[in-house]
Design brief:
heterodimer; A: 386 residues; alpha/beta; Rossmann fold; 2 domains; 7-stranded mixed sheet; 5-stranded parallel sheet; 11 helices; B: 197 residues; Arc Repressor Mutant, subunit A; 5 strands; 46% helix; CheY-like_superfamily (chain B); ANTAR domain-containing protein (chain B)
Chain lengths: 386, 197
């Protein structure tokens, strides 16, 4: 193989959740530049990224993915941030026997052979998050969700985990991504007096909510972040500039990587990213995850001597790979990465202070361990409540 | 939106039997079942009547009558049909084995979990419906006894039919019996209604 490796990059860099896509795309571009520089020096193969940007329009993911696979000759796509988009393009990826590299945290209950999952699933984000927060704040949790599969499934899981742990759902609301009229929701939360709030909103509704929570906390100290935190599994550095007036400061988020983590593997990468995108920018787990995914993909193609997905999957699954997020092992059973858990608190400098960490755990996308283990174990047999 | 009422089922430690010749699709199916948490056995030989599995996935393209040890529509565990064919006879075979869900071949990994959930749900729903029908049939069978008991109470206590029935019902409720059971008991002379009430 002497031709450059072609990798499709499928993210919306504009639209309501454009911040995710901008960090993912920039991380991918930086990885490709680094790989191409190495290739010039005779190490590895050059990479050609084919950028495709649906601009936040749900219907365009499928047509752009089809173009990448059919017309642009890509057998690998690093892409989609929202689960709804991933689920939309999956049948195409299967049909063309391609491989989708998905690096965002998601709601689990998937283990597709044509997808490599390097983002966290619930046993790597939601479970440790609850295990950390419930003993400290209590188990009355208000559940907020974006009105699509991520919000629905995360809230559903949260409800079941709370039932099993003897906790309680203090309230539940779903909001469209672009909904910013949240006065009624704040009144509900005020009346419900939850121990903490699980925020599975994304985009403008999430930013408006965080701003409103700060206003509520100023009125009533019981709703300040230290007393009743708003916690999220997908809020990262890339969105903090979008939240008006730093209203998120003090709130919490779980992630497999934070810009402020001082990992030996991240230092050179961070310097390289700062040189390319400016020293003031904070890099998110989306950025470092996309960087890591493009490198993993290119290196697996090189190791397999082909871009044929089954061979690439065999090359990438099993061994431990050094990445800028730390060493990563992808389980050949599930195609999911083992990932650490970090809990960050938003600081006034536009980043996160890491307040708790756990070492990497294998992904358990169908939560088999929760049900068989003893921690939050409860028999959840299929039943119909009439 | 989120399918309220049906909790997320789990399959940890449950035993699945795949009745299918080994091939690539079956390997994919086995892998996915294990990821979901099941223990898996695969073979191409009949399920014996004394064997117990929590779910059976059966090749409906090649399957023959007798592969599963139960008569049509009396499946003893949830059944998933594995089917590539559109032939009506093969679909009829799947139905006759008691299939509650099907997975189209070649097996798509994402189809496995939904099919298991559906097959379990259908199985539980059918069992509940069967139990309910049996209970209703029993009550229907005893309707005559209720009529005779009401007549007997009315005659013995000089009551009209409505009042006699009310007494019988109260008697049944006090003893946590169905009206039919109470009637049978009265007719058999095992019970006497209280005079007043």
């Amino acid at each position: 193989m002497t031709d450059p490796i072609r990798i499709g990059i499928l993210y919306s860099t504009t639209g309501p959740y454009g911040a995710f896509g901008r960090d993912c795309t920039d991380g991918a571009v930086l990885a490709a530049e680094a790989l191409n520089e190495e290739a010039l020096k005779g190490r590895g193969l050059p990479v050609e990224l084919v950028l495709a940007d649906p601009a936040g329009e749900a219907g365009r993911y499928v047509s752009l993915a089809r173009a990448l696979l059919r017309e642009k000759g890509c057998r690998h796509i690093v892409g989609t941030a929202l689960s709804a988009a991933r689920k939309d393009v999956t049948p195409l990826v299967e049909k063309h026997d391609a491989l989708l590299w998905y690096l965002c945290p998601y709601e689990g209950f998937e283990a597709n052979e044509n997808i490599i999952y390097t983002g966290a699933c619930p046993n790597q984000h939601l479970l440790p998050l609850f295990e950390h927060l419930i003993p400290r704040h209590g188990g009355r949790v208000f559940l907020l969700g974006a009105n699509y599969v991520w919000g629905w499934e995360m809230n559903r899981l949260a409800r079941e985990l709370l039932d099993a742990a003897g906790g309680e759902v203090a309230g539940e609301r779903f909001l469209p991504i672009e909904e910013t009229e949240i006065g009624r929701l704040i009144a509900e939360i005020r009346a419900a007096r939850p121990s903490f709030i699980l925020n599975n909103l994304i985009g403008p509704s999430s930013y408006a909510f965080l701003a409103a929570m700060r206003a509520l906390g100023r009125e009533e100290p019981a709703f300040r972040p230290e007393a009743c935190p708003v916690v999220s599994c997908d809020l990262t550095e890339c969105e903090l500039p979008e939240i008006p007036d730093g209203a998120g400061v003090g709130q919490l988020a779980a992630a497999c990587w934070f810009d402020s983590l001082d990992l030996p593997e991240s230092r050179a990468f961070r310097a390289q990213a700062a040189a390319r995108f400016g020293a003031g920018r904070r890099f998110s787990s989306f950025f470092s995850g996309a960087y890591a995914a493009v490198r993993l993909c290119a290196e697996a193609i090189r190791a397999a001597s082909t871009d044929e997905p089954a061979a690439v999957r065999r090359a990438v699954c099993g061994p431990v790979h050094p990445t800028v997020q730390g060493p990563i092992r992808i389980d050949p059973r599930t195609n999911h990465a083992a990932l650490p858990f970090h809990l960050g608190r938003i600081n006034a400098e536009g980043g996160f202070d890491v307040i708790a960490s756990r070492p990497p755990v294998a992904a358990d996308p169908y939560l088999t361990g929760v049900r068989s283990g003893s921690r939050i174990a409860a028999p959840t047999h299929l039943r119909v409540v009439s | 939106m989120s399918g309220a009422g049906v909790t997320t089922p789990h399959f940890v430690g449950r035993r699945a039997l795949i009745l299918h010749r080994p091939d690539e699709a079956v390997a994919r199916l086995e892998r996915q079942l294990r990821v979901i948490g099941l223990e898996v056995e695969q073979r191409w030989a009949p399920l014996r009547p004394e064997e117990r599995f929590d779910v059976v996935l059966v090749d409906a393209d090649q399957g023959w009558n007798g592969l599963l040890p139960w008569p049509a529509e009396e499946a003893r565990c949830p059944v998933v049909a594995l089917l590539a064919s559109e032939a009506p006879g093969r679909i009829a075979f799947a139905i006759a084995q008691g299939a509650g869900a099907l997975i189209a071949k070649p097996v798509n990994a994402a189809a496995v979990y939904p099919a298991l959930v559906l097959a379990l749900y259908i199985f539980a729903e059918r069992a509940a419906a069967r139990a309910k029908i049996e209970a209703l049939q029993e009550r229907l069978r005893l309707r005559g006894a209720v009529l005779r008991a009401v007549d007997m109470i009315a005659a013995r206590h000089c009551l009209d039919e409505e009042e006699a029935y009310r007494r019988l019902r109260r008697f049944a409720m006090d003893r946590r019996l169905t009206v039919e059971q109470a009637a049978a008991s009265v007719l058999a002379g095992r019970s006497h209604l209280p005079e007043a009430g």
